[in-house]
Amino acid sequence: MISVDKSTFKKDYQKKFLELHGMELVNGTNFQKYEALGSLIRDYVAESWINTRRKTDKSKEKQVYYFSMEFLVGRLLGDALLNLGIRETCRGALNDLNIDLEELENLEHDQGLGNGGLGRLAACFLDSMASLSIPGHGCGIRYKYGFFEQKIINGTQVEAPDNWLREGNVWEIKKLDKAEVVKFGGEVKVEETNGRIIFTQVNYEPILAVPYDTPIVGYKNNVINTLRLWSAEPVSNEFDFSSFSRGEFLKALAYKNSVEAISQVLYPDDSVYEGRRLRLKQQYFFVSAGLQSIVRHFKKHGGKIEEFDEHVAIHINDTHPTLAIPELMRILLDEEGLSWETAKRITNNTVSYTNHTILAEALEKWPIDMFKTLLPRIYMIVEEMNKRYCNELWNKYIGQWDKISKMAIIADGYVRMANLAIVGSHSVNGVAKLHTEILKKQEMSDFYYLYPSKFNNKTNGISHRRWLLKSNSDLKNLLCETIGDSFIKHPMDMEMFHKYAYDSNIQKKLNDIKLKNKNKLAKLIYETKGIVVDPNSIFDVQIKRIHAYKRQTLNCLRIMDLYRQLIENPNLDIVPRTFIFAGKAAPAYYLAKNTIELINAVAEKINNDKRVNDKIKIVFLDNYRVSLAEKIIPATDLSEQISTTTKEASGTSNMKFMMNGAVTIATLDGANIEIKDEVGEENIIIFGLTEREVLNYYQKGGYSAWDIRNNDNRLIRVTDDLINGFYNNDKNRFRSVYENLLTYNDEFFVLKDFDSYLNAQNKVDKYYRDINQWQQMCAINIAHSGIFSSDRTILEYATGIWGSTVLYKNL
Ligand code: 26Q
Which residues carry this modification: N6-(pyridoxal phosphate)lysine (predicted)? Predict the structure, then answer.
């Protein structure tokens, strides 16, 4: 922990500003002020960073490396200040200089190197590892362009590149001396020397992987871990020079571009797998660079390669980094000269894998030809793994060819990454109880039967530091006043707040805090969208990726029905509501984009209809991202978690909302089930098909969207409104949404759940009318949210999977 008082801070800051910008503070722009603050904080962090590294290198503690294609970090300044314990000192010092800290914090560009839940989870895990003093580091790609920026223009999503590095990045440090070479293509030369077969990749294309390190600050414990992101560069400029001199200027530039393409952009898909060669290149690129640097570092500090697995744990976030398995094998076999058996044992003991999705279309597989040409040596290793593994299967499942070919790593012309991840690791986990059960019973049942002890559950979590302490400081203060501050280090202590749930004084205070947050959000909505919303209405929020299974359509159809009811009966007695949506659609996902158009068209119509405007309003906020979520969540009354049961692996925003005192309306899907178990049935509003009913439909069929619609007048009316010009002159505008519901028989049972959803929404109104009762529910949600801190999740990973012994000591 650094100790710095206000006056020292002020001096340090002024000095930093002068050094950095060569001018006086008063003449600086706000962005320059932000830059100076960021770089001062990085200086403050530097010493602990080195100390942490030194301790880590000396200690024999296990090092955890979290490999992920995505780290959705968001902004860093506020969290760093909070975790260093100097946010208030800094706020005061800046105040004296007439600078508003929050204004500067808002100028930081989000580091948006992720699509959604999986990427944000990785960022929360880094925060928890550092805060729990676990030596754990992130390994990923430094995309030049993050997740695209979304603008809503004429009600439609328009994508623009996210040039997040344009104004520089004060947090990262380029480490050219730690660069690694990654080899693509070419052939494998096989030679025998002294009775050993040696494999050498020749005629390959070398790519330089250059790491950029970002400090991950632990909460008041002097621990600074590292997020290392790799950037692709040409190996040397010599190539350019020689071709320039041969007059091949354009060719040289094209080469440079093709190399840099590897870390150019994050793929903006979160569920549909596409076999793009560049994505496979990205995967091998960062995995190979990461592993080479880990092994190099391990040996440099005296590690014996035979004991690698006792000191290193590598976790792969979904199948995207699965090439870590054959790459580690390659290093152990070809560079360290170990036997196949030893290499395989070490690799299996080192690697563990998390599955994040059960959508079959998201399972990654690569065409053999593509794989083999790009990664010839890695392919040989995967082939050998597959051969040995299938041999075992043959002995076990005599004659059961179908089963064996289903379980093989290589089959039907593809390399299957999930199968490789399961076979090559020692642990496979799902991210919520239901999800893990589905993996075991259905999706991966053959593997579960083969390796029962590999399978385990680790219910997701969220950083309560970012999602409560930082983003809702008033609520944090109320908790501290009532139950003390022990919950900050021990989030389960939030349970002590339960008894205050029945205290009308506390209920009132909770309501005041919520209202204050809602006022702030209302202001933001007005500034960004020009829509006036009533802070006394229920803020009903659905913010997440736009996807058919998440069922934004269900929410929208219900609003359309409510609107029809209000037109018929302007005196309908409902509690006023503001419906808030935000979320991005994958650029090629037509249905999701059409859903955005629908929501915006409904918003446009309703918001301009004076007859209903004191009752309902709809807002679709542009460019959903971490920093926007931090503003919306503390201002939410009702959290919409309405995915088709069995489809949402876990969900994590559900946890953020409950921790901030929102009531959840939910299906019994993902972690919603565990939330219900924590708060009790009376403090959450559940509706919809059960797991068994959904699986029944999938297995036995018998679902008829038309029948359901034709038997419900409300559904007839709202589905007609999709195509009768009511919301847009162009009757075909929402055709895609319509056809999905009816022509294609409603894969996600929106129509089936409609009635039960509407009943659930009526309950919301009923509960909200008694505001004390409502706040009691909110308080109980807050009190039971501690278990969903990612600190709990990470401790489970550390003890149950990684075998992290203890944590850094005495820093
Ligand atoms: C795969 C191949 C090609 C291109 C992109 C992808 C890709 C990229 C991202 C596939 C999946 C993702 C992300 C998935 C994801 O975010 N899943 C979510 O993970 C959360 C954390 O565990 C869960 O809470 C959510 O339920 C789950 O949907």
Answer: 656
b or e along 419-456 (b: 16 or more beta carbons within 10 Å of the residue's beta carbon)?
bbbbbbbbbbbbbbbbbbebbbeebbebbbebbeebbb
Query: In 3D, which of 688, 664, 693, 700 has the Cα closest to residue 750?
Result: 688
- Tens digits of per-residue pLDDT, 395-413? 999 999 999 999 999 999 9
Beta carbon of 149 within 6 Å of any ligand 1 atom: no
CB–CB of 465/127 below 8 Å? Answer: yes
Mapped onto helix, strand or coil, the DSSP state of residue 504 is helix
Please report the beta strands in 544-592, taking only residues with DSSP state E, as ranges in sequence order.
577-582
pTM for the model stands at: 0.97
Residue-level pLDDT at 1: 66
> Which among 209, 227, 203, 190 is positioned nearest to 66, based on CA atoms?
227
Residue 758 CA from chain centroid, whole number: 30
Domains and CATH numbers, the chain: 1-59+90-109 (no CATH), 60-75+112-321 (3.40.50.2000), 510-794 (3.40.50.2000)
What gap in Å lies between CA 713 and CA 719, rounded to an integer?
10
Regarding the beta carbon of 121 and ligand 1, being less than 6 Å apart is answered: yes
Q: What token pair was written down for 683?
A: 């403090």
Q: Is 577 in the pocket of ligand 1 (CB under 6 A)?
A: no
| Adjacency order of strands within the sheet including 410-411 | 365-367, 414-416, 410-411
Residue 161 structure tokens: 């590149």
Residue 371 three-state SS: helix
Q: Three-state secondary structure along 272-329?
A: CCCCCHHHHHHHHHHHHHHHHHHHHHHHHCCCCHHHHHHHEEEEEECCCCCCHHHHHH
809 close to 60: Cβ distance less than 8 angstroms: no
**Which of 321-330, 351-360, 746-755 shows the lowest mean pLDDT across its residues?**
351-360
